[in-house]
Amino acid sequence: MGAGTPHLNLVLTLRPDALETLLYYASMSLRLFGLLARDHGLQVTVGDRYTPPQAYDAVISIGSVGEDVPVWVRLMAHQQGPTRVLRLEFSDVHFAAHRYAAQEEHVAQAVAFARDLPPGSRLHVHCAAGKSRSAALAAVILAETSPRLGDSAVAARIRAVRPSCAPNRVILALGDARMGRRLSRAFR
Question: What is the domain extent for residue 142?
Answer without folding.
Answer: 8-186
